[in-house]
G-protein coupled receptors family 1 profile domain-containing protein
Amino acid sequence: MSTNNTTPITGDPIANSVKFAVLLAFEIPSIITSSIIVIYIVVTPAFRSKEQNHSTCALLSFNFLQIISDIPLAIHFFHLNIVQPATSAHCILWTWLDFTLNISSLQLMAWISIERHLVIFSWNLTRRMSRLQQWFIHFAPLIICSVWSPIFYFFTIIVAPMCANTWIFDRLLCGLPCYLTTNWGYYDLIFNIIMPVLFILIANVALVIRVVKQKLSRVRPTRVDWPRQRKMAIQLGILSMMFLLGWIPLCIIQLEMIYCQSDLLIQVNDFIDCLLYFIPLLLPFIFLFSRPEFMKKFKGFLFGKKQATVIPATIK
């Protein structure tokens, strides 16, 4: 993703071949793992019924859609060194899909980071709310994060009343949509990318500080399971770190590109754009290994529970 649509730089066929091989190597196991996770969630009502898992389910759903739709299109491009089919309709749909899934996942991760504060530290406040207020606080952000990006990018990429798209078929995502060169591009960068990244960063730093401070404190709420909450904070930190490692460099590069244009910055930006594909590819594995209790249930679901064999005793 970029806020600038500058002079095209034709991709290096050798570099594209390397990207194709690396992405394909991660794509296959990621599809298998993510598919099994989604099947487990679908057939396990106990997991879905917990409110704290709803945000995670939404994130995994968007991530699964990106793995089976957006990333295969990128792999196909790196294999052929050109967009196929080379049509405006294909470019519009691919760009809308890529932007929608990336930003929806980023915004959901930002909400998950904020929601953990409510789960861990504000349980007493939410307990005093009415059921309608609890429902609104829980579901409204999920709904907004899920529908905002599809609507915003439908307007800016598909409708695009502010400019006319010119697609470049030998560049990833066809050279990106034209709205990024208008004020809408700055709005997109600030509100849809930088702000969620800041929310993730600030929320996780604050969460670590509060957990450590509460651990050192002699007075602790008796109704809070602190070992479990610390584990939840660690799980969130691992997932958040992956998003921050991908999105913070992109934010820095794109802010620099607003004030300074150079081929080096454009090439670095294209490289970081490619690295963003590893967030959805790695997320299923990080989710599994950061949640041992889910991993245990996952193994039981996949392989079944071993039943003890009863051997009748011989009576002499």
